[in-house]
Design goal:
ABC_transptr_permease_BtuC; 14 helices; ABC transporter involved in vitamin B12 uptake, BtuC; membrane; mainly alpha; disordered N terminus; 348 residues; transport; cell membrane; Iron ABC transporter permease
Length: 348
């Protein structure tokens, strides 16, 4: 009897070891990809630079045009890493909190709410401080999240994944239309934010990175602390409540962390889409559905994807640039269509 019991545990132990190896290999690979992406981001652009130029730029020298270009690319690279990580983690958290495989800050209208709030603040209240953009962006993102959930909860059955996706899509279109309606008559505001609407990190400065970093750290800590609760929510609300979880509180805290991340990221980089949709689904194939692994690995994957997308946007149209929001849309749109067509991805 003891031998049979011991034998029955072997497959489970082997499965755990196999997942452990995959997670370590995947984590290591993502770190390498992110480092390579950061090096490429600093090196490639409209102006070619040499290794000595890169070193001079990293040490703060602006004696040559190439060194100055490298020095300008450093905060741009840091912002791409931070924004990519924030969007990917917020997407993974929203998918886990809503048990909706189509959840994404842009698809659910959260990015659109942040953008509408920022544009409204500039056009009607004269906001000009980047730090105020962040606060207003987070408020707009929170308001959009509440509105989408309220619309998705109407009728019998509550907020199902399909209803949330539809409510988010409708809300995102409405927010985009309202933003355009505010910008079109205000050429002064439109000239400042026409590129911001597309989404990009080209305007990054050390001050921008320093201002957004505390908000992203707080949001990331809240999301990582919510990982065990998200694992419990994945079992279903009734079973999670039976295990002693405070379902509404857990979902509210996790969503709040995601809102802080995507609101702050949208404030400094514009409404960049699909990063929070593509990365979590790709990395679930490598590390599984355990959010204690999925969230930190998604941060690395999102940072690498957005940094590489920014490099591609700078290289393919030199000396002009393609904003990173366009590149991520070209990557994410086919993935979104494929995801919708997969019947077994209707729920997490």
């Amino acid at each position: 009897m003891t031998a049979l019991a011991a034998a029955s545990t072997v497959p489970g132990d082997a499965r755990v070891r196999r997942w452990g190896r995959r997670r370590v290999v995947g984590l290591t690979a993502l770190v390498v990809v992110l480092v390579v992406a950061a090096v490429l981001s600093v090196t490639f652009g409209a102006r070619d630079v040499t290794a000595s130029d890169v070193w001079a730029g990293l040490t703060g020298s602006n004696d040559t045009a190439s060194a100055a270009a490298v020095a300008k690319r450093i905060p741009r690279t840091l912002l791409a890493i931070l924004v990519g990580a924030a969007l990917a983690v917020s997407g993974a958290v929203l998918q886990g909190a809503t048990r909706n495989p189509l959840a994404d800050p842009q698809i659910l209208g959260i990015n659109g709410g942040a953008g509408l709030a920022i544009v409204s603040g500039i056009a009607f209240f004269g906001l000009s401080s980047p730090s105020m953009y962040i606060w207003v962006g987070m408020l707009g993102a929170a308001g959009a999240a509440v509105l989408v959930y309220a619309i998705g909860s109407l009728g019998s059955g509550g907020a199902t994944p399909l209803r949330l996706a539809l409510a988010g899509a409708v809300t995102a279109v409405a927010f985009s239309s309202l933003t355009s309606a505010i910008l079109l008559p205000r050429t002064d505001v439109m000239n400042v934010f026409r590129f911001w609407q597309i989404g990009g990190v080209g305007g990054a400065t050390p001050e921008t990175v320093g201002q957004v970093l505390p908000f992203l750290i707080v949001g990331l800590i809240v999301c990582l602390a919510s990982a065990p609760a998200l694992n419990t929510l994945a079992l279903g609300d009734e079973l999670a409540a039976g295990l002693g979880a405070r379902v509404r509180t857990a979902r509210l805290i996790a969503t709040a962390g995601a809102v802080v991340l995507c609101g702050a990221a949208t404030a400094v980089a514009g409404p960049i889409g699909f990063v929070g949709l593509v990365i979590p689904h790709m990395l679930r194939l490598i590390v599984g559905v355990d959010h204690r692994w999925l969230l930190p690995v998604s941060a690395l994957g999102g940072a690498a994807l957005l940094t590489l997308a920014d490099v591609v946007g700078r290289v393919v149209a030199r000396p002009e640039e393609i904003e990173v929001g366009i590149v991520t849309a070209l990557i994410g749109a086919p993935f979104f269509i494929a995801l919708v067509r997969r019947q077994r991805m209707r729920a997490l």
